[in-house]
Amino acid sequence: MDTLQLEIVTPDRLLLRESVEEVQVPAKGGYLGVLPGHAPLITELQIGEISYRQGKATRFLAATGGYCEVLPDRVIILAEKAEKAEEIDTTRAQSSKDRAEKRLGELQNPDIDFSRAAVSLQRAIVRIQVSGKRGS
Length: 136
Hints:
- By secondary structure, this protein is an alpha+beta fold.
- It has two domains: 4-85, F0F1 ATP synthase delta/epsilon subunit, N-terminal (ATP Synthase, domain 1); 88-131, ATP synthase delta/epsilon subunit, C-terminal domain (Single alpha-helices involved in coiled-coils or other helix-helix interfaces, Up-down Bundle).
- The protein is 25% helix and 46% strand.
- The chain contains two helices and eight strands; from the N terminus they run E-E-E-E-E-E-E-E-H-H.
- Strands 1, 2, 3, 4, 5, 6, 7 and 8 form an eight-stranded mixed β-sheet that branches.
- A hairpin with a 2-residue loop joins strand 6 and strand 7.
- Helix 1 (90-105) packs antiparallel against helix 2.
- The chain starts with a strand and ends in a 5-residue tail after the last helix.
């Protein structure tokens, strides 16, 4: 077995269904690499970058939470939100990053939800990083 089936599903759509050689996911305890024949497991996803390799080509996606099921011949990702690198609006992601940084800088403002602003900042940073990897 040289490949495994990768499926990435969001509440809106089936984002991806491809035969791949390797997958890396942002698992709760850190990044998890998966090759064909991997032991079965289920893990929660954190905000981060999903990558997968097909031959010499590596593709990237930005993901926001969800779950990942790994089987010896398949990886199924149920993501709250996921975007392929080429789908990311870099200008919008940069604006989100700027807004989150501004909110986090307003330490004296009791109306600011700092944990929400920190998550927004983390998500924006990942989207910007992934958007820079188009066609890698």
